[in-house]
Amino acid sequence: MRSLFTALSRLWSPKTQGVSYADGAIPDGMAVGLIEVMLDGRIGQSSGTLPLEVLHDHTLASLLGEVAQRARQTGPCSATGEGWAVHATPFAKSVWILLFELPVAENTRNDPVYREAQALKRVGRALTMHSTAQPMCLQVAFAIKGALDLACVKVWEVGGAGLGDLARTGPAPNERQMPDQHLSKFMLHPLAQWWEHPEGHRALLPLHSGETLLGVLELWSKPSDPFFVADRAIHITLAEQVSLALRSAQAFESVERLATTDPLTGISNHRTMQDFLSRLLKESVRSSGGFAAVMIDVDHFRKFNEEEGHDAGDDVLKKVAHTLVKSVRSGDLAARYGGEEFTLLLPGARYQEAMDVAERCRKAIESIPYVTPAGRHKKITASFGVALFAEHGRSAETLLKSADEALYQSKHAGRNRVTCADHRSKLESA
Hints:
It contains twelve helices and 17 strands. The protein is an alpha+beta fold. The N and C termini lie far apart (about 70 Å).
């Protein structure tokens, strides 16, 4: 029988509801078989793990007829009703490979094997919904909470500053009444640990990548949960799955950061700025809205590098970048354009608002306290050029060129000032 299922599973279309069990393992509560449905709807033959007597079930018989008709017309399909689920894919002529999801008795639901299968099923779906750590872990936390009927699930991430609250489904039962000493002790010895309390049991499970501790999976039971202690093996299995997913998500985010951020300053890079600008242009054309682009150049930076060294110059660029990010509005983009040049993109900003943001950034840079490695106090300043869509350009190229020309005017006028592009300058034709 197992060899039959293995053969069938290899023929099973992965397009059918995403179901594939090529390892030959039959999930709990499921069965497979070959069913021949006659043209008049009668069931002809059956083989596999499905007992023939279940074919007398009226609901199932109706579903089989529905699935058979749809399979002839559209190919792989599914149907559900009254606890049954039938997934079908054509096999040969009037024969279909069918996967049945059987109604599960209440006592079966309490079986550890069934509970583990259901938990892994839910968690597996949650793991595929997001590629980044925080939304993925939030989905997983809710999946575990629902599958095991827990009071609270938390995912902690290990970072430079220690543990960070990555995701949670809600407050723990006795979170406020009890000082959290378990977590600090756990960090010294990160092994799976369980504690029993009248208001609800607690589990702390390490999330590992080899010998590296990625985070902690924290589980809280409801009061008088009869399964929490017995589910310890399930907790460990789930922690292993979350560990693999968290490691993959962190790797993805690391690659994403390298592609979108400037390696020196840590803010958005030139590519990210261009992508953001492209989106702003499309949105502004569609909505007849506006925005501003600001070009920034650190004053006398080449001379500073020559006098103080490149390390000091890099430090200045980092400070300027950090200051710009803090000084712009929520939703604005601060990016390193290249060298000592930076760019601001200000969605929805008109003349006065754009000038106000630029002036605020200029003052903030001027106020940076900087002492060179040699102990000399240096004043850092920057020059700004502002251009508005569509007054000064209707494309990325012309808009940035207008902002750059305004920046040159600021430098020509003595530096450390904000200049808007000349409204009388030639505009690109629409």
